[in-house]
Design brief:
The protein contains 12 helices and 12 strands. It has 360 residues and is an alpha/beta fold. The protein is globular and about 55 Å long.
Length: 360
């Protein structure tokens, strides 16, 4: 049996799994306490700590000799097209030096490389959050000196797009799909012929408000708030990406709790949850114009889509555009495996990070 090891480091968890023949063999999510993480002065210094955890998982299953490849979560790298990338020297340098910022996902490629060296097998990353396939016009912000960026849940968006188009008897590479990923953050992408050609980037404050993010704001009023309260950049970031959205309105970020309050008759909870769904639907409508109305499917994914209420509310607004398909949660582990498998099976070529120029 040939198997692939999958590694997905998060800020407070390490997810690992082994897949073979498109089936999950075993998986484990190890949660890390605040105290455990606090002993390290940086993300990169956690490498050995995380390596030992994953090694224990592999040894317990006695799978080392069955592994033919290892694939890690892509981190913050230079803007690059989507695809499966072999882990190589320049990529490792950018991850280790945190050249493009710091995040736990930077450890994905580093840890994959450690196992690949030990077992003499190839290491890959797949569709990192920096995937940039935007059309030139989509980059224009409206103010010279500032460009829109492509940042979103690229790995899961592309994975569910493939699933949705397969169910429709089509392929991702020949279809047009809109994907809305709803979690603590929300990103909405327009996918056309295998590329994510435009993204409503929640990380930079675009689009709908979320459980804890503000989304787009009236600029003059927001500028006045910043000046009136003498806010520094750090204060602004905390405000719009942690203390905004449903948290600012309801004092709550857990959608399950918001739903309970709504079911108990709290009109305010229903009002602001409906508002979030309304704004997500507006974003989907906006991207349907990018695709000139030729949309094969609208895909709703992320943890929020476990809620039948949220799924139904958004669907009411957008199902006239195209069929709505729901994939609650995320498919990151499976998507990482499938990306590595496609390369090993000769279905696509592994991309060379060092040879790819920064997307502009």
């Amino acid at each position: 049996m040939e198997a692939i090891l999958v590694i997905n480091p998060g800020s407070t968890s390490t997810k690992t799994a082994i897949f073979s023949d498109h089936k999950l063999i075993a998986e484990e999510t190890i949660r890390h306490s605040v105290e455990e993480i606090a002993q390290f002065d940086s993300v990169i210094s956690q490498t050995e700590f995380r390596y030992k955890i994953i090694l224990s998982f592999v040894e317990k299953l006695e799978m080392s000799d069955k592994l033919v490849a290892v694939v890690g979560r892509g981190g913050l790298l230079k803007p690059i097209p989507g695809g499966t990338y072999k882990v190589e020297a320049e990529m490792l340098e950018d991850l280790r030096t945190e050249k493009y910022n710091t995040h736990a996902s930077n450890l994905g490629g580093i840890l994959a490389n450690e196992f690949a060296k030990e077992l003499n097998i190839p290491a890959f990353i797949v569709d990192p959050v920096v995937v940039d396939e935007m059309k030139p016009l989509a980059r224009i912000s409206g103010l010279k000196g500032i460009e829109r960026r492509s940042v979103g849940h690229a790995l899961n968006q592309k994975a569910v797009s493939r699933k949705a188009t397969e169910e429709l008897g089509k392929t991702y590479e020949t279809s047009s799909v809109i994907v809305a990923h709803l979690g603590g953050g929300i990103s909405i992408g327009a996918h056309q012929n295998g590329k994510m050609v435009d993204v409503i980037n929640g990380l930079d404050g675009e689009g709908p408000y979320t459980p804890e993010r503000s989304g787009s704001l009236p600029l003059i009023d927001f500028a006045n708030l910043i000046i009136s309260n003498n806010l520094e950049l750090g204060d602004v970031k905390k405000l719009i990406a942690g203390n905004a959205g449903l948290k600012s309105y309801l004092g709550e970020t857990d959608l399950r709790e918001v739903a309970k309050r709504m079911e108990n008759g709290e009109e305010e909870a229903k009002y602001y949850l409906d508002g979030m769904c309304y704004q997500v639907a507006k974003g989907i409508g906006e991207l349907s114009v990018v695709l000139q109305g030729k949309v094969d499917a609208i895909v709703l994914t992320g943890g929020a889509i476990y809620s039948d209420y949220i799924l139904g509310k958004i669907s009411q607004f957008v199902e006239w555009i195209a069929p709505v398909k729901a994939f609650p949660g995320e498919m990151e582990m499976e998507a990482l495996y499938e990306g590595a498998f496609r390369v090993l099976a000769g279905e696509e070529d592994a991309l060379d990070y060092g040879a790819v120029e920064i997307v502009k």
